[in-house]
Amino acid sequence: MRTIRIGSGAGYSGDRIEPAVELAEKGDLQYLVFECLGERTVALAQQARMKNPDSGYDPLLEERMRAVLPLCAGKGIKVVTNMGAAHSVAAARKTAEIAKSLGLSSLKIAAIVGDDVLDACKDGDLPIMEFDGSIKQLGNRLLSANAYLGAGPIADALTAGADIVITGRASDPALFLAPMIHAFGWAMDDWDLLGQGTVAGHLLECAGQITGGYFADPGYKDVLGLARLGFPIGEVGEDGSLVITKVAGSGGAVTAQTCKEQLLYEVHDPKRYLQPDVVADFSQVKVEEIAPDRVRVSGGRGTRRTDTLKVSVGYVDSFIGEGQISYAGPGAVARGRLALEIVRERLKLTGVAASELRFELVGVDSLHGPDVSACANEPYEVRVRVAGRTESLREAVRIGNEVETLYTNGPAAGGGAWKSARDVVAVASVLLPRDLAKPQVRFVGA
Amino acid sequence: MKKLREIAHSRTGDKGNTSNISVIAYREKDYPLLLEQVTSERVKALFAGVVEGEVVRYELPNISALNFVMSGALGGGVTRSLALDAHGKSLSSALLDLDIDDAPQQ
Predict the structure, then answer these.
(1) What is the pTM of this model?
(2) What is the number of structural domains in chain B?
(3) Is residue B105 domain-resident?
C-alpha cells in the first residue's frame, strides 16, 4: 500500500522555525505544511495590502522559506502553506525571488486565488452569523471577506507540478488533505476517506499541540524536552490509515493522550465537523499507541459536504484602552482593590465613554472572575488591570491614563504601570453559496 | 472525594465567542464517573460568571471523553474580547478542580 509522510512545520504565524528545519532534514517527508493564518490575520493583512499593494502576506514568509527551501528542494519535499494571507500572488512572487537567490530557480511555485469574496458578499448582503446585522450594515468598517476554500485547488496545483503551493484563506485541515487527494487520487465525493483525511489534517494543523505542547502539567502530565519540541508527522496510507509520529530524538511526546486532546481541540459537535470538502465525523475515532511516539488513529468518517462555504469577515469593531499597575507585600490585595475603585470613580468623574469595562486583579481573579476564583489564598503580589471598549482611540487612551496616574494619586507603593490603546479588527462569519467562490491556480515564474 | 484532575485531563479550544473544553478519562474505567458527575449543569454552574449562553455536552465513549461546548463564553469573541485570556485557554484548569465523589454506590 502506498503511504505518504506529511510534516506540520508551523501551528500559527509566529511559531518556532527550527522544528520545521528538523522535519525537512530528518523527517523522511514528501510534504511539509505550514499553517500560519489565524482568524483575523487576513483582515490585518488586507489592511497592510491597502497601504502597500506588494504586501499583505505573512511577515515570516521570507524567514521560513529561506530556512527550509534548500532542504526541501534537495529532497523533493513539496511545501503547502497559507502564508499567502491577503495576497497569495505577492507571496508566491516573493518566494520565487527567494528561490532564485538560493540557486533554486527550477522550483515551480503556485498561488491559489479566489478566496477573496468581498464583492460577492456585498452583492448578496449576507446576514452575519454571530450577531444581528448584515454585510451592508458594517458600512465602511468592513475590511475583508475571505472564504475558507477546500483542498481541491491545492491538489490541482500539486497535480500540475507545483513544488510550492501558497494559499490565502483555506480550511486548515484542507492544507493536509490536499496532498492525500493528489497522491492517492481520492474522489472528491468519497466522504469517508475525506472524513478520515480531515481527522489527519485536524490533528496535524496545530503542529506542537499534538507532540506535547499545550499539554504539560507537572506531576500529572510530564513532558520532556519542551524547549526542543519536535513537530508532528502524519503517515497516511491510501486507504486513510493514519499514524501520528515525530522525528526520533526530538523533544516532546506523541501519546494517546496528546492525540485525544488535539482530536477535540476547537471541535463542537464531533459528529459534524464542518469542512469545505466534507462534513467530518469524529465520533467513532479510535486512538491506539503502537510504539513509543507512534499513535494509530482510525475511524474517521464523513458525510456529504454542505452547499455553502464559511466566510471570515474582518471589520473594525471598536477601540480598547488598557492600564496595569502592581502592588506587593502585606495588604497588596487591599491596595489593588482600592486602586480599582479609584479608577472606576475617575472614569465616571471624567466622563470616559466606554461601552464595556473590566476591573480585575491579575493573580487573583482576572482569568475566571471573582466567583470561580473565590477560594484562592492571598497572593504576595497583584497586578491591577483595567480594560475598556470605546468608540474612539482618544477615549481609549484615557483609560490607561487613569491607571497610570495612580503612581502619584493612588494607593501606596504602586509600581510598573503600563498602558495601551489600540483599534480592534474583529472577525465575524457569513455563509456564502459555494458556487459564488471561484478558486484558481496561478503559477508564478521564478 | 477527589478532584477531577486526578482522573481526567482536559484541553480548551476557541471559535468566535464559543469555547469548548474536553474532559478525557486517563483510564477507561473512570469514564462512567465522568458521565455521571461531570454534567453540563455542573459545568454551567461552575462558569456562571463567565459563560452567558448554554453549555452542551457531547459524549465520545470510544476515547472515554466528554466535550463541553459553551456559547457566549469569550467576552464577545476572541478577536474583540477585553479579557486577558481572550481565547479562554485557561478555562480547562478551573474545570479540573471540580469535586468527584468516587465512593462505591450503595
Answers:
(1) 0.95
(2) 1
(3) no
